[in-house]
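Human: My hope is that you can spare some time for a protein that puzzles me. I am handing you a single protein, as its sequence and its fold in token form. Could you go through the record with me and say what the backbone is doing? Take your time, and here it is.
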Amino acid sequence: MAKKRARKTDTRKGGDRRKTDRRKVARAGAAVKRNAPPEVLLVATTNPDKLKEIVAILGELPVTLKTLKDFPKVTIADETGSSFAENAREKALHYAKATGLLTVAEDSGFEVDALDCEPGIHSARYLRPNATYPQRFEAIYQEMQKRGDTSRAARFVCALALASGKAIRFETKGVVEGELAAKPAGSGGFGYDPIFCYPPYGKTFGEVSPEQKLAVSHRGEAIRALRSHLEQHL
């Protein structure tokens, strides 16, 4: 008659066994995460220049990035907020609801202290919706001259919101302080970059490389904060 094989007894202490079990669970969880399909993130902007800056930072994440071009039938969000943050939330929630995707949206603009922080949230429509940026620059300089204010303090502001379903999951704000340039300079960048002088560089954002701008800009600051959030929660 065959002898019964003795049952192997685990002689480790309880604490050691629990540590081993936790390591097994952690390894199993990591394996599942590696094999899971990548998260889909909608970058909700119609501005191709902004999109380039966002993708330059978020493109390193293990996510599949979608843009509004992938959803041509989705209506454009209204921007009825009284602040950058309100507009960012409004856009993020609108597109998250319309697409069912995790969605990031931002609202940004240029503020000049001497003009009561105008153009501000109206930056993209300042003067009139179809005005060119050189026309807007001229209007700003004319208004400065009319007011006779010698202060040139100015800044770029970017508010960013991440939404899922009907909830805001994360929000942040990036700001870069500087001055209104004495005159427009540089053909790089976009928007108000040629009239924003960044003192540490001694140049306008229109005169520096995209990499130099993104390293210190309002949008770069906000997107890096978002990337840090996503790295911890995806």
